[in-house]
């Protein structure tokens, strides 16, 4: 079996936090590739930049990572219907296209996982993918943080064994504490407004692109 990582986000812009999350899970679970899927119309976040700049920065930022690929299905979908890009719809379409020996693994931070119940048809996510959580060392997931419904799914699905990901077609929850980079897009935009260096936040090629096109001013 081959495990395919799926990482969604506004990528407004892509930053080291996104790349680190993908790198850590790729190494631990031996993911064959990771799909970076920029949101078309995000239901939970405002998107600042137009699609062409977000896509161009993804292309530039991921050039050095041959197993990291860009999937623009949400952006293409939004061009036609202007409806929010729901993760469940994206996973369904990926599931229809994947090969028989491929398994989808949705990559997510612990903060987002704790809010999973607010996502559209969240319980159906487990029918199409495993969920791999990056846990912050300073903010580990505690069971008393989980809602009743989320705790039920957690108890039923959680594992510490990577082999379980290969032996099940979907529905596993796995979490690991990594050297998490706590970077947000708003933090990057604030740094730009204050004229601070972006060196520790985004790849140099992205910093140059932002400066060249006078983005986020």
How would you portray this structure in words?
The chain has 217 residues and is an alpha/beta fold. It has a single domain (2-182), classed as HUPs (Rossmann fold, 3-Layer(aba) Sandwich). The protein is built from 9 helices and 7 strands, in the order βαβαβααβαβαβαβαα. The chain has helices at residues 16-29, 51-61, 73-81, 87-97, 110-114, 148-157, 163-167, 185-193, 204-212; strands at 2-9, 33-38, 68-70, 102-109, 130-135, 158-159, 173-177. It has a 7-stranded parallel beta sheet, sandwiched between helices. It is globular. The termini are far apart.
Largest beta-sheet details: 7 strands, parallel
Proportion of β residues?
A: 15-25%
Unreliable stretches, pLDDT < 50, 5 or more residues? none
Task: Give the strand order of the largest sheet, numbering strands 1, 2, ... along the chain.
Answer: 3-2-1-4-5-7-6
Key terms:
single chain, 217 residues, alpha/beta, Rossmann fold, 7 strands
What's the topology here?
Layout: E1 2-9, H1 16-29, E2 33-38, H2 51-61, E3 68-70, H3 73-81, H4 87-97, E4 102-109, H5 110-114, E5 130-135, H6 148-157, E6 158-159, H7 163-167, E7 173-177, H8 185-193, H9 204-212
Parallel strand pairs: 1-2, 1-4, 2-3, 4-5, 5-7, 6-7
What's this entry about, in short?
The protein has 217 residues and is of the alpha/beta class. It has helices spanning 16-29, 51-61, 73-81, 87-97, 110-114, 148-157, 163-167, 185-193, 204-212, and strands at 2-9, 33-38, 68-70, 102-109, 130-135, 158-159, 173-177.
């Amino acid at each position: 079996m081959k495990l395919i990582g799926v990482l969604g986000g506004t990528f407004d812009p892509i930053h080291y936090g996104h790349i680190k999350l993908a790198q850590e899970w790729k190494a631990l679970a031996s993911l064959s590739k990771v799909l970076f899927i920029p949101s078309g119309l995000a239901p939970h976040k405002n998107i600042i930049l137009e699609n062409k700049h977000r896509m161009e920065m993804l292309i530039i930022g991921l050039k050095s990572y041959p197993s990291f690929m860009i999937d623009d299905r949400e952006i293409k979908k939004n061009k036609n219907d202007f409806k929010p890009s729901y993760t469940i719809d994206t996973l369904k379409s990926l599931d229809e296209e994947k090969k028989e020996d491929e398994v989808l693994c949705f990559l997510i931070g612990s903060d987002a996982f704790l809010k999973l119940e607010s996502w559209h048809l969240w319980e159906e996510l487990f029918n199409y993918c495993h969920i791999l959580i990056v846990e912050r060392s300073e903010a580990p997931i505690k069971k008393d943080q989980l809602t009743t419904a989320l705790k039920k799914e957690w108890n039923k699905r959680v594992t510490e064994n990577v082999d379980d990901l290969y032996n099940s077609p979907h529905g596993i929850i796995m979490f690991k504490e990594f050297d998490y980079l706590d970077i947000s897009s708003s933090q990057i935009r604030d740094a730009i407004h204050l004229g601070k260096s972006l060196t520790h936040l985004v790849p140099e090629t992205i910093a140059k692109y932002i400066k060249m096109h006078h983005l986020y001013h």
